[in-house]
Amino acid sequence: MATEEAGADSGAGVGARAESAAGADSAGQAESGAEAGGRAASGSGSGAEEGVAGGIGALSMPYQVVAAVALAVIGVLACVHLSMVFLHVAPSNTLTKRHGEAVDDWVYPEFEQNWKLFAPNPLQQNIAVHVRAELARPDGTRTTTGWIDLSAQDAEQIRGNLLPSHTEQNELRRAWDFYLNSHTDDQRPNGLRGRLSEQYLRRIVMLRLDERALGGTVEKIQLRSATRPVPAPAWSTEKIDTRPSFRTYPWWRITAPDRPGAAAGNSTEAKAGTEAAR
């Protein structure tokens, strides 16, 4: 019995020592894995640091100088190219008038642009509309007034006015554009639009003349345009002749529909006709 108990104790001691050895081996493997992971992390960190230190900084000094000069040249060429293309597509200005040949030599034919940067182009001229009238006086005589600057009247109404009306700003100007765009160079109307533009312009002019005491009845009117180039800015050396040039148009005979009371009369007649129909 004593011999059997001693053998059991000895077996238990051997098993305990085996378990202790296995635990030690496991711990050693875990530590080895941790060390390997640390070395791997350290290796990746050093690789990242090497990557950060790459590029131009990794080059030797002579190569760094060459790379910096090359980047500077590319940057200057990019700026020059963008400036040349901008001047090419921009409206006519002082720089393009002075250096237009150099801009065209740079752009054509590889970098040609078929579009404009601004639409419409800024105005290069001031155009005023003048009118004079032939009057029939009460004593039967006829006389012709001097030229009246209708555009100047609109400008006077707009200047200093915080809320100018659409009529003062655009009515005469748009009517004049309508007239010019619907007529040929020899002042012939292009179909119905041309004839409508004449009627529209006559009625606007008659509204302006009706506000004046001319001393007679308007029988005819004549229009002219006064075109004056916009002067160059003070810093420019460009010389621009700002004297106005005039273009005179044929006389128009004024009929009853052109007079200011005609619209009210037509609306009254139309209303009367509608009531009679009812």
User: Which term fits the overall shape?
Assistant: elongated
Contiguous helical run count = 7
Global Rg: 46 Å
**Secondary structural class:** alpha+beta
What would you say about this model in short?
The chain is α+β, with helices and mostly antiparallel strands.
Polypeptide structure, described:
The chain is α+β, with helices and mostly antiparallel strands. The protein is about 55% helix and about 15% strand. The chain has helices at about 1-50, 60-90, 95-105, 150-160, 165-180, 190-210, 260-275; strands at about 125-135, 140-145, 150, 215-230, 245-255. Helix 2 packs across helix 3 (about 95-105), helix 4 runs antiparallel to helix 5 (about 165-180) and helix 5 (about 165-180) runs antiparallel to helix 6 (about 190-210). The longest helix has about 50 residues, at about 1-50.
Topology:
Elements: H1 2-52, H2 61-89, H3 94-107, E1 125-136, E2 142-144, E3 148-149, H4 150-158, H5 166-181, H6 191-210, E4 217-229, E5 245-253, H7 261-277
Antiparallel strand pairs: 1-2, 1-3, 1-4, 4-5
Helix pairs in contact: 2-3, 4-5, 5-6
